[in-house]
Amino acid sequence: MNLFAEPADHAIGRSRGGLSTKIHALVDGKGRPLTLLVAPGQGGDAPMFPHLMKHLKVKRAGPGRPRTRPDRVRGDKAYSSRAIRTHLRERGIAAVIPEPADQIGHRKRRGTTGGRPPAFDKENYKGRNVVERNFNTFKQWRGLATRYDKLALTYRGGAVLRAISIWLTALGDTP
Predict the structure, then answer these.
(1) Phi-psi region of 77 (alpha: psi -120 to 50; beta: other; left: phi over 0)
(2) How far apart are CA 99 and CA 165, in angstroms?
(3) Is residue 17 scored above 50 in pLDDT?
(4) DSSP per-residue letters across 23-43
(5) Burial degree of 103 (CB within 10 A; 0-12, 13-18, 19+)
(6) pLDDT digits 0-9 by tens, 113-159
(7) Which fold has domain 4-171?
(8) Pair type for strands 72-74 and 21-27
(9) Domain boundaries, the chain
(10) Are 53 and 72 in contact (CB under 8 A)?
(11) Statement: residue 19 has pLDDT above 70
(12) pTM for the full model?
């Protein structure tokens, strides 16, 4: 089974302080959500990555433990940190994450001690649009897009309900 985890976060929804709630998600290669977490909008993307990976569990068709390790992770430049790349390398997961310009500059400035650039598969990265399309389906739900809920628990419940409806559509026999 080929499993891709594609971390993404989008600040969708409105709270009393403005647009400040982020939904962090891991989706499979077909855009179906595997893990959803809600965090404050001012929080960064990289600190949420270990929590997303910790919650990732995909049941096997037959007997055995659920899969917790995807074949590769596609992420945007926000996930390009030494800690995330080390975490993925230790678990044997290929990272398809571009290196931001500032990190390239820092590495080149250090010369030979800066190390070599991380491997990056440009063709594989083109499949990351699946995440963006997934979040566009989330934004179609008015309750999530307008963020009428005042409690994070209620907002996450709406996000999970939307994820369930996406899976039901994917698994159903009608279009």
Answers:
(1) alpha
(2) 35
(3) no
(4) EEEEE-TTS-EEEEEEEETTS
(5) middle
(6) 888 888 888 898 888 888 888 888 888 887 777 777 777 788 888 88
(7) Nucleotidyltransferase; domain 5 (3.30.420)
(8) unpaired
(9) 4-171
(10) no
(11) no
(12) 0.78
